[in-house]
Design goal:
Blueprint: E1 12-16, E2 19-20, E3 26-32, E4 35-41, E5 49-57, E6 61-71, H1 97-114, E7 122-124, E8 135-143, E9 149-153, E10 160-162, H2 171-187, E11 197-207, E12 213-217, E13 229-234, E14 237-243, E15 247-251, E16 254-258, H3 268-285, E17 289-293, H4 301-304, E18 310-315, H5 318-330, E19 336-340, H6 343-353, E20 359-362, H7 371-380, E21 384-389, H8 392-402, E22 406-414, E23 424-431
Parallel strand pairs: 4-6, 7-22, 17-18, 17-20, 18-19, 20-21
Antiparallel strand pairs: 1-5, 2-3, 3-4, 5-6, 8-9, 8-11, 9-10, 11-12, 13-14, 15-16, 21-23, 22-23
Helix pairs in contact: 1-8, 6-7, 7-8
């Protein structure tokens, strides 16, 4: 056992896990002659004493694989899924759920604190920590002689972990998962001579409110099945073959339509709670005008329209913009102006024109607003900003630009992704002075 010596790949060391990183890995510290090195270990929890083997070494930290649990943390629990330690889809199922939520919120708040944003926060668990996912992206390996295998990839690899079920999928989706191997076996094209295996990025499964399911399969010849809809996927384009061209999903008290490859939250109960939190803040503000960035298909838009006299919804995607307009039409909403544009361009024009909205609502992808958009938003200086983020790191970067002009009024962490390290952040900024 190595102690107080330089780390090398293959070393076996003993650590106490002190914290959970935003990635979901447990963090321990190992003392070398040059100082302390952080070591990240999967499938560990704060309070664990572990023996681990160093797998990768970087300039300031190392990663290791768990070899033996010397002393378990009081926060550990038996994972609900038999595939947990092999499958890469869930990272935190070995930790009691209330502690998962606390650890994730602490990790996210620490990232924000380093950006100068510190405030009391509320953590929200909007539903069950299991059976919450209404969508999953699965993978398939199909050989000439073997039954197709369907599952998720293992952590940090493209090695398939075949699944007999999935504890985080809603029941109709899990039923589809179990049916896929036999379905694919009947529909797979004949392999070419010399080809041992065919690889497919196979399915996106959606739960419908009516308890049916949609399976989106990347195959060339699948025309008949028991699915609600079927698409042929070529690059970024999805061509409908049979069934429903869109699906419907709940956004709090209303139902919206979306395309199978549109972004929507995987946790529908969590999404409704997220919408209520954003709408609650907006209602307290009482804005006359709202500018919404990254509006998508209208998840927040249709609710903001009931609060403000005038809402401008900005979305860059062509397909999403069309669906946004469709949802507004279906709900007979007439006080929303839709712009297909990049957020940064709209912000630049708005800042230059001097037409400042009362409230800006932004829900960007994992990359955040980005430096240009954050600078333009700071220049525009609306009275209030509601920022919804799925990535504390990009949120912290954007807040460094905004925080000089704004004070933090509210900070909430909403767990839309139980059993994973991901957490959604909602914060409310008000302009100083």
């Amino acid at each position: 056992m190595r102690r107080n010596t330089p780390l090398t790949v293959g070393d076996t060391v003993e650590l106490e896990i002190e914290a959970l990183a935003p990635t979901g890995l447990g963090v321990g510290r190992y003392r070398t002659p040059d100082g302390w090195v952080s070591v990240f270990v999967p499938h560990t929890a704060p309070g664990d004493a572990v023996r681990c083997r160093v797998a990768r070494i970087y300039k300031r930290y190392a990663e290791a694989d768990l070899v033996h649990l010397l002393q378990p943390s009081p926060h550990r629990t038996e994972p609900a899924c038999p595939h947990f330690f092999e499958c890469g889809a869930c990272e935190l199922m070995h930790i009691e759920y209330d502690k998962q939520l606390a650890f994730k919120a602490d990790a996210a708040s620490f990232v924000l604190k380093r950006a100068g944003v510190e405030a009391p926060y509320e953590t929200i668990a909007p539903g069950s920590p299991l059976r919450y996912r209404a969508r999953a992206e699965l993978h398939c390996i199909a050989g000439r002689a073997n039954r197709p295998r369907v599952g998720y990839f293992a952590r940090r690899s493209h090695e398939l972990v075949e699944l007999s079920g999935c504890k985080v999928l809603v029941a109709p989706c899990e039923e589809s998962l179990r049916a896929l191997p036999d379905l694919l076996a009947r529909c797979l094209p004949v392999s070419r001579p010399g080809t041992d295996e065919l690889y497919f990025k196979t399915a996106i499964v959606w739960e419908y409110p009516q308890d049916s399911a949609l399976v989106w399969i990347r195959l060339k010849a699948l025309r008949r099945s028991g699915t609600a809809g079927l698409y042929r996927v070529r690059g970024d384009k999805a061509e409908p073959l049979t069934g429903e061209p869109v699906f419907r999903f709940p956004s709090d008290a209303v139902e919206l339509v979306a395309h199978p490859d549109s972004f929507t939250q995987v946790n529908w109960a969590g999404n409704s709670r997220l919408v209520r939190e954003v709408v609650g803040i907006a209602s307290e503000i009482g804005p006359r005008s709202v500018l919404e960035l990254h509006a998508g298909v209208g998840n927040f838009t249709v609710h903001l329209a009931a609060i403000a006299g005038r809402t401008t919804a900005v979305e860059a995607g062509k397909k999403e913009t069309a669906l946004l307009r469709k949802n507004l039409e279906l709900l007979e909403i007439t006080n929303v102006s839709v712009q297909r544009s990049l957020a940064e361009r709209v912000l630049e024009r708005a800042a230059a024109s001097g037409h400042r909205p009362d409230l800006v609502v932004c829900d960007p992808p994992r990359g955040g607003l980005g430096p240009k958009a954050a600078d333009s938003l700071a220049s525009l200086a609306p009275d209030h900003i509601i920022y919804v983020s799925c990535n504390p790191a990009s949120l912290a970067r954007d807040l460094k630009t905004l925080i000089a002009k704004y004070e933090l009024r509210m900070l909430k962490f909403i767990d839309l992704f139980p059993q994973t390290p991901h957490i959604e952040t909602v914060l409310w900024l008000s302009r100083k002075g």
